[in-house]
Amino acid sequence: MKYKVNEKGYYGDFGGAYIPEMLYPNVEELRQNYLKIIDDADFQKEFHQLMKDYVGRPSPLYLAKRLSERYGANIFLKREDLNHTGAHKINNTIGQILLAEKLGKKRIIAETGAGQHGVATATVCALRNLECVIYMGEVDIERQAPNVARMKMLGAKVVPASSGSKTLKDATNEAMRDWINNPVDTHYIIGSVVGPHPYPDMVAIFQSIISDETKKQLLEQTGSDQPDYVLACVGGGSNAMGMFYHFMDDENVKLIAVEAAGKGVSSGFSAATTFLGKEGVLHGSRSILMQTPDGQVVEPHSVSAGLDYPGIGPQHAHLFKTGRGQYVSITDEESLDAGLLLTQLEGIIPAIETAHAIAYLEKMEFKGGENVVICLSGRGDKDLDTYIKHFNL
Amino acid sequence: MNRIKQLFLEKKNILSIYYTAGYPNTDDTIKIAEALEKSGADMLEIGFPYSDPVADGPVIQASSKQSLDQGMTLNLLFEQLKELRKNIRIPVLLMGYVNPVLQFGVENFCKACAEVGVDGCIVPDLPMVEYEEFYKGYFEEHNLSNVFLITPQTADERIHKIDGLTNGFIYLLSSSATTGKSLEVGNTTETYFGRIKNMNLKNPTMIGFGISDKQTFDKACVYANGAIIGTAFVKAIENGNIEESVSDFMKKFKS
Description:
Strand content of chain B: 5-15%
Number of helices of chain B: 13
Helix content of chain B: 40-55%
Number of domains of chain A: 2
Number of strands of chain A: 14
Distance between the termini of chain A: 48 Å
Low-confidence stretches of chain A: none
Low-confidence stretches of chain B: none
CATH topology of the largest domain in chain A: Rossmann fold
Number of helices of chain A: 16
Structural class of chain B: alpha/beta
Distance between the termini of chain B: 31 Å
Helix content of chain A: 40-55%
Strand order of the largest sheet of chain A: 3-4-14-9-10-13
Strand content of chain A: 15-25%
CATH class of one domain in chain B: Alpha Beta
Keywords (chain A): Amino-acid biosynthesis, Aromatic amino acid biosynthesis, Lyase, Pyridoxal phosphate, Tryptophan biosynthesis
Shape of chain A: globular
EC number (chain B): 4.2.1.20
Family (chain A): Belongs to the TrpB family.
Cofactor (chain A): pyridoxal 5'-phosphate
Largest sheet of chain A: 6 strands, mixed
Oligomer: heterodimer
Radius of gyration of chain B: 17 Å
Mean pLDDT of chain A: 96
CATH topology of one domain in chain B: TIM Barrel
Subunit structure (chain A): Tetramer of two alpha and two beta chains.
């Protein structure tokens, strides 16, 4: 439990709830109730029923043969791309919508980057008949058009965030402003392990189903629930935290988090937070973020909208600082190449976010026979335009 | 004695004005302060800009962005504020978000405030718990008031705790909203203001968010020791001659 949140809402030096008073009652209501609600037997039953019948879980753990041959290790892909709506994001939105209902909320808001969390939120709102407003950066609305159309079809209102870099960070600011202005009837479904306590913990708990299943599947397939490596891409870090969660206390399992280097870590167009960031406060928690010496948040860059975020969740900052996790980075170019490679070797088109994790295999050295699990966090349908343009397909 | 305490002992219906440092032009910070004191402001809140101001509406966001784009930093602001006490006698607070303060260093920040004659701070996203545990000592050492916000949703118990922690005034938000929404004093707001008034807090109260004209200001003064105007003022000094826009704006409140 040494990597989990303490009773004050901190992971080592990181976490807390750095929020203006206007948000305090909302966040406090959540803090006082989230564990009670989640631990309730009826809640668990409904959550797992929906996970099975609606999301399609458990997602397979697939031994990718041709990829394994290429790198000389046993590479297992945790197929979150096969979930309903095409990514891991739905695990969290199902959990939070059930929780919002228990709290008596009538209106749901969310931010989205790639649009996957927006789609996953709009989906559960349709499912449970709740009003849904999604904030999305103007730049992202343009580069993720299919997901915008899906959200609208699902009945959500998509509001463009036009401040700052017009991406995920700004969409998050707008969602927080909405919550300040609608404090009583609205629940804010944050899509990653960021935000004020208890969000990072709550989202990690809902996403931890990924590693919970993985352990069982590994035991069945390899005879051990302990792989040598676990890899995942990190923007805010929700799929990575879900993938790491039940492995954190298995100190012999190496955890590798892959950040987006953009055009290169030192290019000025990057989202590699642990390389470029410093400790500070962003979106309500103390973590590591990219900022100027004066404490202004730096606008990140990544070809993948889901990794285009200047911070990481506080629990990731803790894993990084304690050395429990290894944080590395992959460029736009490398990720696109890896996306194409996986497509042609395994017949799986990954989201460009996910392709960052695949790309890191190139940089690893295997003796042979190591077991490696990669979280295949999402499918690449939404990224076809980017792939097509890049490879002149 | 701290200038803020002195002011509340001596005056009623206090008019406090918020503006963003370095806006509309980088070197306007002191000019605006002087023009405001000259035209009758009782207290000033100078905002140090932040890239991600989640509690602010579009007007203050835009002023913050412009100020930052023009090169404003906390270092530059403290440089400018060396001139503050040449002509200004009224209390001055700095208001802004916690991350720039953390990067400057909370201890250095408090020291710099005291050196230039700033009397207090408002840092809305600095949690009460962290303030009490880690930073209160620095504020007290430099005789700075740290002002907390309360909203209609803040529980009585928490209000009493805030009242015990602070020693300047309590910033009463007229509603739970980002800055720039207009004040509608309906029954619920009146009940809330009345509830606070009856709590007999040791600190004076100032009502903020949504005060834009004489009418809303007077209404706020019925329930509190005064009121704070931000967005309406920032909007009023967008263009034109600073001294003239300030004096035109202030005339509305002094009639």
